[in-house]
Amino acid sequence: MEIELRHIHKTFGPVHANNDITLNVPSGIIQGLLGENGAGKSTLMKILSGYFHPDSGEIRINGSPIVMHSPADALRFGIGMLHQDPMDFPPMRVLDNFMVGYPQGLHPPRKEARAALKKISDQFGFSLDPDAYVDTLTIGERQQLEIARLLWLGAQVLIFDEPTTGISAQQKDSLFAALRRLAKEGKTVIFVTHKLEEVEILCDRVAVLRAGKLVGTATPPYDLDGLVRMMFGKAVSKGKRTPIEFGKPVLQLKNLAVEDSRLRIEGVNLEVREGEVIGLAGMEGSGQRQLLRAAAGLVRPVEGEIWVDGHNLTGKTYHDFLRRGVAYVPASRLEEGLVPTLSLMEHVILANEQRGLVIDRQAALEDTRKRIQTFNIRGRPLLPVESLSGGNQQRALLALLRPGLRLLLMEHPTRGLDIESAIWVWSTLKQRCREERTAIFFMSSDLEEILHYSDRILVFFSGQVSEPIPAESATTEQLGQLIGGRGFKTGKEASS
Amino acid sequence: MKRFWWLLVAALVLAGMVLSACGKSSTPTPEAKQPFVFGMLLVGPYNDHGWSQAHYEAGKYVEQKLGAQMLYVDKVNPADRPGTTAEQLAEDLVSKGAKLIIFNSDDMKDAALAFAKKHPDVYVIHASGDVSWKEGKDYHDLSNLSSVMGKMIYGKMMAGCAAAMTTDTGQIGYLGPLINDETRRLASSAYLGAKYCWEHYRGKDPKDLKFKVTWIGFWFNIPGVTSDPTQVADDFFNSGYDVVISGIDTTEALVEAKKFHDQGKNVYAVPYDFKDACSEAPSVCLGVPYFNWGPSYLKLIQAAQDGKWQSTFMWVGPDWKDINNPDTSAIGFEIGDALNDKASDAVTTFIDELANGLNLWTGPLNLQDGTVYLRDGEKATDQQIWYLPQLLEGMEGQSVQQQ
Amino acid sequence: MNERNANLLFATIAILVALVFTSFVLVLAGASPVAAYWYILKGSLGSWTKVADVLVAWVPLLLVTTGLLITFAAGLWNIGIEGQIVLGGIFTTWVLRLLQHSAMAPGLILFLAIAAGALGGALWAVLAGVLKVYGGVNEIFGGLGLDFVAVALTLWLIFGPWKRPGIGSMSGTEPFPESLWLPTLGHTRLSLWALLLGIVSIALVYFLLSGTYFGLKLKAVGKNPRAAYLLGIPATRYLMSAFLLSGLFAGLAGAVQVTAVYHRLIPAISSGYGWLGLMVSMLINFQPAWAAPVTLFFAILNIGSIQLPIVLQLDSSLSGVLQGALVLSFLLMAGVRQKWVARLRAEEGEA
Predict the structure, then answer these.
(1) B282 and B390, same structural domain?
(2) Cβ contacts (< 8 Å) between C273 and chain B: which residues?
């Protein structure tokens, strides 16, 4: 099915989110849509999938104009969209979820559905158990479920909005394989992303959006620098590693063991010094998160000791750690990091030291405005945080951190951010290391990020922890092998 | 918020104007002839098939007999009408023209008293209390206040007799509400009637008659607070008690009896309060003792209308000539379909004996703990009966609330 | 259309829906809706005495709703509020019984009794809180259980240790001497003290929830306990404080019932205000600013509907129908509104 977008305009108040966008997408290819956060990618795709109505312009399918009023309408025309956050119903079973939206009557044909799910799964190499509960699935599996559902409902055009956010490298590989298969079978695939390397390995062609406008298209082989210039209107670079002098130890882990229902990490010995950045690498679920949480007092270690600034905090609560200048930034922003329905300003008030009993709203408002500006957040002080986009929620989380922290523990500090934003985030973090002598302990599934910003790296493989590797001398290949479990030598073995 | 208040005020004013315009035209013009107006406060819904409906119908009866007009408010209790007191509602009725107010429940005792004190020019009837009983323990000297109660002791005796004539196992259960003087009095009356018929008409030894009272803790089931009357009735039927006499306001005993009966067990029940109670399960209903407030109200309201009111305490029994006469008898007993002919005859004979002066509250009678209540040949005074301190000897069950 | 205008529009639609539905029921019952509404209005606002009666009924409901706003802010369903009112009544009665024959000044006795009521309600609420926080018992079930225990306790007291001379009566304990009633205004039943207590309470809680750190932290704990914890808010302490404060206001409501309305302990001392308060809270979508007007409206309905059986021979539960219809249509409209707002926000958020 060939899709044509012609002169699409969409404004929200003063913002021109889509400004005269014209784009043709033939069937059988993977069309990339590249742009930084807020460039208008999501808006355009929501117009194409029936969530929004364009102010002007038209959408054609195979040459004839169509009008859609809802996502269900779009699906009738064969257009389906996978969202950044999978929109399924966690307490339900896979099969029930699969059948949501099926248009016929009160007695859905469960048998047929089961057969269809199996057929689609086989075709695309998905491993979906129809009777499993959805909340036991990984994000990657949820995506597979959503793809299967849309295909069953007759989608010919599939739109993927930042689908690689929050999934492991392995899941990413199988997702890409599925996308290629879809294109090969004649479906039209539109892939929205802000990551250049994904465009490079996956897309047959790419269109770049900036500030609501279509600024260019490209086909392989891609000129990556050219794409970056198109995205940002200028060239950007990660900047050079500037050596920082480390101070006295801030965090000391002594023969630490952490355990949960799935795995056990033991024998971790580590000293993190003022100004130092430690990156935790590994497949998702290899134990990085447990260690990070233990270092914040969120998980009680089963063995060993945790010292912060010379104080033994083993067995203390997170709030005791907090008082010692430790802060934790979780990856799931709306589940753990922010309080939905509260405004950005209210978050600022909560994050600040309490002064008296009564809130000074005027001061808080000014403070919030300042932070919005400093952290370049697109949002208003009084709007609830859940109305912010994912990237802006991440900026908000960073904006809430107090100055003068001793130790900052972070899960995926730049997940969901475009390159420019990620660079900016790290520049503020490094500034903390330099000027406030803060130590940073972070996990990420982005090897480049770990290599580039860490001073030392710990690699995790199913609960085993490597001894610290100096980042300067490490390479992607070396880390990749360790992550896969090859050439592994744990800190415990090394020390014994 | 300012805007909201402004709009609210505007809406109220507008509504007021519209309503007053419509209201005027729809207000009925007063009639030329002024009937005597009396008010009635009902503790439950006017159509509850029980206590309150019996009063409501008595009010209708007076309207019809006397050409008087009744105003009523039902569900007069703090749960149904939060923020109101019976006293306040009575004043409301007075402002509508009522010259006499009936408070129909023990719940409203304080309200009736306070109201009577505050409004000496309005007649007050308190149903079910002893507040205007000179010889009683809680007498209040108020000339505009009368209290009325039916002598249900007789109805309960008949219920006990019907049960004794029917039981095969010689075990009778009594499903009691909460424990107080009134409920002890009624349960004991049922026992006296049962014992008499068991001994004299069936010729058996009173020692072979088991009579057990189980109190649920309230007039009706409150889950979590009272014992479940359904459960209590089931326990009775499952442990050899084949007749259950109900002392509570609801009909669980009857319903459960029917359930067991339908499974082929020979069990029966006697409900309470309301004349038509048997109609819910006629196949297991031995009969029902009921109140008929009409004649008493008629007498008092007539007196008030004619200016001959005197404060009295009426504890009125049945009209022994015809206990089911709606115009004369305050207490009746409706024989149920399930009572066999022989037992039915016996109950009729029993009623005749009572009518001819048989007094079961005659000694020797001991209290449950064995102390003497009435010496041989001694007849109980009304006070002794009204304020019965314990159950009687021969009855099983608690006499006083356990603390 | 902006959000505030939209809220007003949705509220108006909800009221209209409820009115139409109730009118329909009235017509089915063979009555003129206009006449019925007119008598309700006249019976509640038709004279100063009536207005005073409305205010008497308003104060306890307002106090209860005030308490519920706090627990709802913390994301708690304080179903145990009924029991907390009852315990307020019991504690107040207890202190009055202890001190009624003492030489202490009546004003002081009343003050102590009302304070004891607040304490009783707070204790009962803290019990539900302990069950939840330390025992893992959901506050809905724990609260429900405590409600039953409270009612049973009342009955036991009325028919047992505190029974009146002679015969224990459903009418409650022996009424207190008039010197121990909260003084009333003129010939009305309205106590200005009670009224003041109600108004000050809602004003305090409004301020507490909208203007203080405590209120904001409470809301954070209620909306997302995990995030609140990471922000450094001790969730347990805030949950317990919410229970305590909520129970305190419920206890005050019980104290007002004893000292200003019934002047004794009666079996149904709570008057069902707990349930009514929960209904109101849902109706106003837990927004403190609406508590006062909406509880006032409910009080008007309660007092005004007395006229229905008297004048129109109508079943007075029709006012209950109107209240229920209001809550349902408001919930319905809240759903519609939420969808609308979500859409609006989604569009704004993209920008």
Answers:
(1) yes
(2) 82
